[in-house]
Amino acid sequence: MVEIGEDGYAEFRFFRREAANVFLAGDFNDWRADQLRMVRQDGGYWVLKLALPPGDYRFRYVADGLWHTDFAAFGIEPARFGFNSILHVPPGTIKLRVQPQPQVPAAAAAA
After folding, report:
1. What architecture (CATH level 2) is domain 2-95?
2. Least crowded by CB within 10 Å, which of 29, 46, 60, 98?
């Protein structure tokens, strides 16, 4: 499953208790099956959080070299090698926090 959290990140969660390695692949990383490694959690879940710009994305999970569709995503669509999962990131989702910069006194800036 994939959800957009309150922090604006897309959190991908995939259950595969017996898997040794799980990756996330999609059109956001040119479908590279070895780039976005997911992190194993207790109970057999694998998790990865990504900050993605607004838009629609297609993705799949790759567990030990086998591709899997997320049927609990925002939707699915037929593709050349099975079904792709769909993620919709709405506008204004990512909430960036800008740290205020310290003020430099005018005399120190002129020096």
Report:
1. Sandwich (2.60)
2. 98
CA 95 to chain centre: 15
CA distance 50 to 65: 21
Lowest mean per-residue pLDDT among 18-32, 52-66, 87-101: 87-101
**Amino acid letter for position 51:** A
Boundaries of every domain in the chain: 2-95
Q: Which is nearest to 85 in space by CA: 102, 70, 100?
A: 70
Q: Does residue 24 contact residue 33 with C-beta atoms inside 8 Å?
A: no
29-56 b/e with 16+ CB inside 10 Å = b? bebeeeebebebeeeebbebebebeeee
Considering the entire predicted model, what is its pTM? 0.80
